[in-house]
Amino acid sequence: MSGISENDLQLLRQKGISREKVNAQIETFREGIPFVDLEKAAIVGDGISKFSSLEEEVLVGVFEGFKSSLSLLKFVPASGAASRMFKALFNFLDTYNPSEESLNAYLERTNDSAIKEFSQRMGDLPFYGLVQSKIAGKALSDDEKVYLFVKELLSEEAMNYGFYPKGLLPFHNYGEHTETPFEEHLKEGANYAKSGDSATLHFTISEQHAEMFASEFDAVEKRVSTATKTSFNVGYSYQKASTDTIAVNMDNTPFRNSDGSLLFRPGGHGALIENLNEQDADIIFIKNIDNVVVPENAEAVTHSKKVLAGLLTKVQQKAFLYAKLLDSHKVSQGHLNEIRLFLQEQLNVRLTDGYDSYSTDEQVKILQDKINRPIRICGMVKNEGEPGGGPFWIKDANGNISLQIIESAQIDMAKEDQMTILRNSTHFNPVDLVCGVRNYKGEKYNLSTFVDHKQGFITEKTKDGKALKALELPGLWNGGMAFWNTIFVEVASTTFNPVKTVNDLLKPSHQVN
Q1: DSSP string for 470-494
Q2: pLDDT tens-digit readout, 43-83
């Protein structure tokens, strides 16, 4: 990076970002990030496992049998702000004036189906009573009531829900009280991530929301602890400033703010691999903050998580045994064949074509490299039109084939063969992971060494009316875990209930019966 000033260097020091890192990011903008090369979609029987009820019960038994000797952690990315969830409502406030037209006229003029559903079913929202109590007697008509309801919900001087972290919004109405996703995750943690009488959870949050999360925990801890007979150890971390990425102009020169300072932007959820790397447990459950369920589906979620954890425990025990054997230097050709088969059939590892021509010592080194890696078991849901990445076999620049979670933005939509593979995909990624991050000696892997830095994203944005290019780091469960050993498992769609828009709270899966 040329033309760097003392102020620029001071900013880099403040953020903990090296000049070399910035230069590498600028080089990435110049080179561009290549699309991935899809080999084929992962399907049941070829990349995705599916278990019978009996097999599931066996895996649950495996987890339950080992659970008391394991340290467990639930890791929840929770920094998402609710502003995007209320996008349609913000637009409604900007474009509707109840004194100038009726709501029906507005709906006919705009064909706004989201506001139509919202206005017809406001009473089913978990925060309806709370908002209603604040606007009671103020509305002259039903149309004005809808407008005032939205205004009270979102205005900075009122409830200001657009500023809230998504994890602290009321999601479920239990009659006497409402519950946030934060509280629902505590309850979930008690169901499957409890060691003895305590459960440990870690939330990655925005620093500006730290006090809000602490206050929420103080408010609900007694209720949840009493209901679940569990004590909770709750930790928080923030996305590190050192994971921010430099923004560039369209000619790939550093973008500068109006005051002349360099513009850095958050690196996306891929930055959280740093936060995850600071956690240490035998089994780490990962699930997004907005994916929570009402009580009637809680048992299905618990069962599903225990199946995934049981599978991890089972394959990890065998992987540890083989890794130890490879390190002992007393390994026969028969053992090598057995370990190779385990890697291929249980951990979906694909070895290079030339493997058979290598000497025994070289084969041992290859197998050691392949088996000494963190393991992730990823739940996959059948495609039902929900957005999100999906499971695919991909081929890298060196011809190596591996199992990966790929986002649509990583696929070259102009290539018909890639589009055909995408159309043939049967499952998508609900972000439902159970991870093993230690080796057979109990040492934690350095997760940053298993990231594929070529799987980031370049997007176009604007700032102060000027176009710029932004760089997102490889996604946490995409390129961030590209070199982990990976197993995909079909899970029930009832375990996946994300809230992307406010109207998602109106779905039956978020209505408490």
Answers
A1: EEEPPPTTTGGGTTSEEEEEE--GG
A2: 999 999 999 999 999 999 999 999 999 999 999 999 888 88
For 181-215, what is the HEC assignment?
Answer: HHHHHHHHHHHHCEECCEEEEEEEECHHHHHHHHH
The DSSP secondary structure of 79-137, one letter per residue, reads: --BGGGGGHHHHHHHHH--TTTS-HHHHHHHH--HHHHHHHHSGGGSTTHHHHHHHHTT
Render pLDDT for 14-48 as a digit per residue (tens, 0 to 9): 999 999 999 999 999 999 999 999 999 999 999 99
Q: In Å, how far are 204, 208, 405 from 275, measured between CA atoms?
A: 8, 17, 20
- The structure's pTM equals 0.94
C-alpha–C-alpha distance, residues 325 and 344, integer Å: 18
Place of tokens 């340290």: 71
| Cβ-based burial of 27 (10 A; exposed 0-12, middle 13-18, buried ≥19) | exposed
Q: Quick check: 508 and 493 in contact, CB under 8 A?
A: no
127/172 Cα distance (integer angstroms): 9
Cβ–Cβ contacts within 10 Å for residue 321, how many? 13
Positions in the chain whose pLDDT score sits under 50: none
The CA distance from 88 to 115, in Å, is 7
Q: Reduce the DSSP state of residue 405 to 3 states and report it.
A: strand
How far apart (Å, rounded) are the C-alpha atoms in residues 165 and 84?
11
Residue with tokens 């496992």: 49
Helix (H, G, I), strand (E, B) or coil at 297: helix
Asked if residue 92 lies in contact with residue 149, where contact means CB atoms within 8 angstroms, the answer is no
Report how far residue 488's alpha carbon sits from residue 513's, in angstroms, rounded to the nearest whole number: 32
Question: Which tokens sit at 357?
Answer: 């021509």
Domain boundaries, the chain: 1-71+244-262+288-495, 87-154
Alpha carbon distance 167, 185 (integer Å): 9
Cβ-contact 18, 380 below 8 angstroms: no
Q: 375 forms bridges with which residues in the sheet? A: 436, 485
